[in-house]
Amino acid sequence: MTAYDDLMAFQRTTEALAEVAARTGWDQETVMPRGAAPQRAEEMAALEEVLHARRTDPRLGEWLEAAEAPDDVARANLREVRRTFERNRKVPARLAAELARVTSLAQGQWATARATQDAASFLPVLAEVLRLRREEGAALADGGDPYDALMQDYEPGGSAADMAAMFDAMRPRLVALRERALSGGPAPALSGRFPAAGQMALAAEVARAFGYDMQRGRLDLAVHPFSSGSGLDARITTRVDEEDPFNCLYSTIHEVGHAAYEQNVAAEHLLTPIGQGVSMGVHESQSRSYENQMGRSEAFCGWLFGRMRDTFGDIGVASEREFYRAANAVRPGYIRTEADEVQYNLHIMLRFDLERAMILGDLQVADLEAAWSDRFAADFGVAVDRPSNGFLQDVHWSVGLMGYFPTYSLGNLFAGGLMQAVRRDVPDLDAALRRGNPSPATDWLRDRLQRFGALRGPAETIEHATGHAPSPEPLLAYLETKFADLYP
């Protein structure tokens, strides 16, 4: 056994335990009885103590120093182990366990506060989550920017400055496009009855059409849709609103994009450091290209229109074109996950600015609801009517994901370049999408990006797949072309 072999054997167990922890989190958000929350918090803390001890084991440093990397895969594995080892040993074990315990409790309190519109009941635990994440950010930053340090959990190599520059480049053209669309008159809207059973059956059909392997996954309901797991067990959730079937269908396609990335990583990388998606920005590039550039395309909407009428009967729109316009309607709205492609990134910019201000100490939790409402009114021209449509709509802050939100917009940017390359290489894609068959595109993404997992860094992953460095231009050009057609 070489040092590299010893390291990888040790790491395999760590990766397996991390998957167990993720499955415990999935259980909490889907089927766990609410009364189990205090005990689950202790269980999550115990698992985190074990994982933190393994991720900071002194032997890792010895193996890393002695290990030789004969190929690109070994070099990438060593890179990932070194990154997590150096990162985790800056965080005290006490803090890691306390974060796991508090965020487990906070998730349940968030769900209750959201359902009851009781924002005040959630603020104390959110303040505790924020205190712990600030402490973690300070430990990781070593005198640098704590928000940048926290971002590394989700986008290695990313920074607030890079994200701000991306938003500065995108905002003027997005605002202009939004104004054009909103002045173009109302889009068609679905109407009718959309029973939950029919929505879930169609969601499962669509998930399979986009390549989701139900033998290695499952589709369940949750308050906030999410994807969890990797390899042979990658699960997704969605939610149902009987007045809005798009919510269920497009949330499902979005989460399939995440899960397909994990399911399609090459089998030889299973339970290794590179055996998963390389970053949340790259992950989002998959979910956003599946959901929007394929799922909301005119070609796929033509197929989905027929399946919706088969399932529900009269749906309130009479043609494929009207259905396409309804699926891409630009209208004022509160909810990020329901936002159209034009306005979505504006929702992210709001969250990025607020969470960075909280981490840097410029915004206190007690002032968050008012700050959100003021910013939302300024950006969207609408007053927030209730907490679940405001700062309580997303689960992220309750579970400590500060630094995560900007990766959604980064994913949109990456998706723009990827789908430009897909359409270059698959010129007859629309013909397949009209048959409800996205596989020419999903196969391209599998072969050019997904199967490699974290073999390369985020930007390098996109450049390897597309042949070009990431840029906002393909995304903005795609949006301007699409919505000029929808809102002439």
From TrEMBL:
Cited InterPro entries: Peptidase_M32_Taq
Catalytic site: E255
EC number: 3.4.17.19
Cofactor note: Binds 1 zinc ion per subunit.
UniProt keyword list: Carboxypeptidase, Hydrolase, Metal-binding, Metalloprotease, Protease, Zinc
Gene Ontology BP annotations: proteolysis
MF term (GO), any: metallocarboxypeptidase activity
The protein's enzyme class: hydrolase
Catalytic reactions of this protein: Release of a C-terminal amino acid with broad specificity, except for -Pro
Binding site for Zn(2+): H254, H258, E284
Cofactors demanded by this protein: Zn(2+)
Pfam families given in the database record: Peptidase_M32
The protein's role, per its UniProt record: Broad specificity carboxypetidase that releases amino acids sequentially from the C-terminus, including neutral, aromatic, polar and basic residues.
Family: Belongs to the peptidase M32 family.
Protein's recorded name: Metal-dependent carboxypeptidase
Organism: Jannaschia rubra
